[in-house]
Amino acid sequence: MMGSILIVDDEASIRELLRFNLQKEGYVVSEAADGLEALQQIKQQRPDLVLLDLMLPGMDGLEVCRRIKGQQGTAGIPIIMLTAKNEEVDKVLGLELGADDYQTKPFGLRELMARVKAVLRRSQKGSHGHSEISMGALKMNFSRYEAWLDKEKLELTPKEYELLKLFITNTDRVFSREQLLEKVWGYEYFGDTRTVDVHVRHLRAKLAAAPEVAEAIETVRGVGYRFQDI
Description:
- With 230 residues, this protein is an alpha/beta fold.
- Helix content is 42%, strand content 22%.
- Helix 2 (35-45) runs parallel beside helix 3, helix 6 (158-168) crosses helix 7 and helix 6 (158-168) packs across helix 8 (194-206).
């Protein structure tokens, strides 16, 4: 599962810290100190993952993310954003632009390494190609459009089913409410996002017989939701 990772950060000390620890885990690591250099390296090397700082000189991380995800040849490269704790708006914008996850600074290396592994695992397994997937007591059969909790068939509305399918095929990925509306409801939505919260609440209630599954739907304060790998 080891792959190549591009670190994009203007602080040499952070790049050095990340390079040392990623290489120790077996990853091939390259670095860029600004957005333009990052885009050039991505075009030449096509890394398996980009660790992208938002606060970059010149072209900021949001614009770098927009360009990566806006090009057909690079749109599939996963991105983990590195953000300061007070940049909640930027986190949401980054996720809406297609970033796969984020990590706040200062960060714990163990947590960051876990996020790197999770994002690479999702990217490499191509989860949408599976017709059936199980996680704990939950099982979903996509070809039959069914979901089961232990031996009980779940009675889900179409939107609840699609929401659960999106969660279970993207474990540990953070989705903003706006992303969930666009992906599950199928259109850009600029109004009240409380419909997402209502559906998540109903979904948790229907999964309550298996608390570990219900509680896996985690609220990420100020951003949205993620489904934790069980």
